Structure formats: structure tokens, C-alpha cells
Amino acid sequence: MTRRPKDHFFSTRIKSTIKHIPFGKVATYGQIASLVGNHRASRQVAWVLHSSSHKDGLPWHRVINRRGEIALEPGEGFEEQKRMLENEGIQFDSTGRINLGLYMWDPGNLIL
DNA sequence: AACCTGACTTCGG
DNA sequence: TCCGAAGCCAGGT
Questions:
Q1: Alpha carbon A38 to chain centroid distance?
Q2: Which nucleotide is nearest to A7 (CA to C1')?
Q3: Nearest nucleotide by C1' from A43 CA?
Q4: Domain A10-103 -> CATH class
Q5: Whole-prediction pTM value?
Q6: What's the pLDDT tens digit per position in A43-90?
Q7: What's the CA A3/C1' B7 distance, rounded, in angstroms?
């Protein structure tokens, strides 16, 4: 997937990709960015989630940072996200991190 | 057009 | 492995 100079659908593709994350799996911001064609747009993924995760009914809780941690701050959604992930069978280690090697989504040959 | 904003990532120490 | 600084990018103002 190549990024066009004027890509009005960048955010739309990010949302579409996030919707593909399966139950019981997680994806990182950077991973989503790569899938939509720009591995350096991780901050944009965060922006999309921040601005429209609820409105578009995205499985926002399945997106975490590179270190396997929930990016939200306690009191800002952290607790809810952790609970939702645990409800999907995902476990956290003693330091609050998720084993990415075990739970990270493998999109295979995903076609958007 | 310039500047600000993020639920980030990478790099150097 | 932890921390802070720097890098990055598109959308919003």
C-alpha cells in the first residue's frame, strides 16, 4: 500500500484496519500505521482513536503501544481498557504489560 | 501558511 | 531496561 500525496482517506483506512483486529488479539499503533501504508504515522493512529473511536464503534481497546502497555492514563480510560482486554482472555504480567509475541494480531495478507 | 496537538516510536546515554 | 529528547505525520485552528 502506497501513500498518496493527497490522501483524504487516510483516517478512514486507519479505522477500517482497526475494525479488522480480531477478538482476543491486540495491535500496536505502529502496526496499524504500517498496514495503512505509512509506518511513521503512529501518532495519527492515536489521533483517530482519540477523536472518533466511540463515534465509529471501533474496537479501540485492542490498540496498545509498542511495549505491550495500555497507553491511556489511569482515570482516563486505562481501567476500562484493561477490563475489556481481560474479558477477551488477554492476560497482563506483573508489570502491567501484555505478551505481544502471544497476543499481537497477525494480519497475514490483509486486504482493506 | 504557520503553529499546535496527540491513547506514538525511535534513538542515545 | 529505563528515561528524556528528538523525530514524525495528518488533522485542526
A1: 15
A2: C10
A3: B8
A4: mainly alpha
A5: 0.91
A6: 999 999 998 877 888 999 999 999 999 999 999 999 999 999 999 999
A7: 24
